[in-house]
Amino acid sequence: MPDRAVALLGREEAVTEIIGAGSGPNGLTDLDDPAGLIAADVGGHLRAAALAGAQARAVAAAVDEGALDPLDGIAPRAVVVVCGAGPAAAAAGFVEALTAGRFDVPLVRSTELPPWVGALDVVVVCGFDAGDLVLARAIAVASRRGATVVVAVPLEGPVAEAAAGRTVDLSPRLRVPERFGFIGVAAALLAVLGRIAGIDRSAAPGEGFLFALADTLDDEALRGAPDRDVESNPAKRLAARMAGRRIALTADTAAGLAVAEHAASQALTLGGQVVAAVGLADVELAVPELAAAPRGGALSGSDALFHDPFLDGPAAQTPLRVLVVTIEERAPMVQARLRALPDVEPLPVDEGARRAPDTAGPRADAQELLALAVRFDLASVYRRLTGEA
């Protein structure tokens, strides 16, 4: 890694020092027991989740060093994003939704290279598996057809062989477990689209949107560190809100829904909790049924065995909590739309969170929504460590 990138990534030491290296015996612990949380995190999940800002800063450092200079002056017919499943696809969906109607060039997302791609197009191949033959084939074929190819996959194995010096290298400089790679892929795609749109070309080194995004994500990770108690820790508060409830995640925008779907995946794979992610319109349609559903807690195993719905009436269910992924200025409107539900909570970035000045439009939305993605990552890890799922 170039010295400049190493120096920039050094800013993450404060985050990872607070989060800890993830060593110690397994065990269940309390949310307000920092030592116990760090000791239980034998997989290093807290540290990996806290590196979201470092991932964005690594992409920004690569751009500062000229990684995307070959895109200057290009007016492509289309930008084609080729990615596999998992966090890479989720991040591509987030960026696609965020930029819809705001980007002058058609943006196409696909699991394989479309047959019509040619010399007039920009192809971005993103993922985590350097041995993925589908991604390697997409790189090789797109390059052979004369397309400008940006590779945001580790340059190893078949992918490195397919790239062979003919592509724009935006491969990850900071490697994290795939399940925590959502932010890195989103940052890479935002960098490519911003460069094609001519944004930030004149920004001084160390400045620009991606550096501001990295600062926002660092702030979210620091506020979600295990040494902060539940009252002052947004991630721990979120983990506590998800305990003892059925959870439905929704959002008032397509980009927010992409974050909600990522959060639902993290809740299942990290926290072991089944969470539904549905559009706000679907939740509104279900309001009459949800509002009328019996409440009071699920029946125990023995009670459920002897429950007679004809004599006892409908069985009570575990209470449902609807969490809405939105931004601060829209939160009151969303809450008003769902006021008939007994337990609805918008999740904008908290007051006091760090925001970049003079950021508006989709970039402001990106900062808030990606900060919420980091919060959900940390909350899912806390659910895993406390065994409350």
From TrEMBL:
Which GO terms fall under biological process for this protein? carbohydrate derivative metabolic process
- Protein origin, superkingdom: Bacteria
Q: What name is this protein filed under?
A: TobH protein
Recorded source organism is Tsukamurella spumae
Under the heading InterPro entries, the entry gives: SIS_dom_sf
Q: What are the recorded GO MF terms, alphabetically?
A: carbohydrate derivative binding
